[in-house]
């Protein structure tokens, strides 16, 4: 009887480990976007936080606001879409969900204040 309980426990552990490998790590901890290009004096501010310098490779999370000031910024979202922000733009990501499916969840962002170009 003890051997059978141990066997069931081993099968359950194996199933949990297998389920963990089926979940994409990117979906668990990925930011909404990453900065692909930044020139000039762009900044980013988290919800309720102070603005700080923004550089290539930086993460952009839901709730963040990007300020291009006199520069330009290009963001690449986890679904592969690009957003290019022109000088004097302010772009806030209100909500972003990507579950790794072929059809992404919608992006909810504040209307940009200045130039915006997208490509997906």
Q: Would you mind describing this structure in some detail?
A:
The structure is a single chain. Helix content is 22%, strand content 32%. Residues 21-27 have low confidence and may be disordered. The protein has 2 helices and 10 strands. It is α+β, with helices and mostly antiparallel strands and 120 residues long. It folds into 2 domains: 1-29; 31-119, no CATH class. The longest helix has 21 residues, at 2-22.
- Helix/strand/pairing class, anyone? alpha+beta
Count of distinct strands: 10
Mean pLDDT: 78
Report Rg: 20 Å
Query: Helix proportion of residues, in percent?
Result: 10-25%
Gap between N and C termini: 58 Å
Q: What spatial order of strands do you see in the largest sheet?
A: 4-1-6-7-10
Q: Per DSSP, what share of the residues sits in E-state strands of 2 or more residues? A: 25-35%
The number of helices is 2
Outline:
The chain is of the alpha+beta class and 120 residues long. It contains two helices and ten strands, in the order ααββββββββββ.
């Amino acid at each position: 009887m003890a051997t059978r309980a141990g066997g069931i426990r081993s099968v359950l552990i194996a199933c949990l480990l297998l389920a963990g490998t089926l979940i994409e790590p990117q979906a668990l901890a990925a930011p909404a976007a990453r900065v692909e290009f930044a020139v000039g004096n762009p900044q980013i501010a988290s919800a309720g936080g102070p603005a700080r310098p923004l550089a290539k490779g930086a993460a952009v999370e839901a709730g963040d606001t990007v300020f291009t000031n006199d520069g330009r910024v290009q963001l690449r979202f986890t679904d592969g879409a690009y957003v290019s922000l022109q000088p004097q733009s302010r772009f806030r990501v209100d909500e972003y969900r990507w579950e790794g499916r072929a059809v992404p969840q919608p992006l909810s962002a504040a209307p940009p204040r200045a130039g915006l170009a997208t490509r997906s």
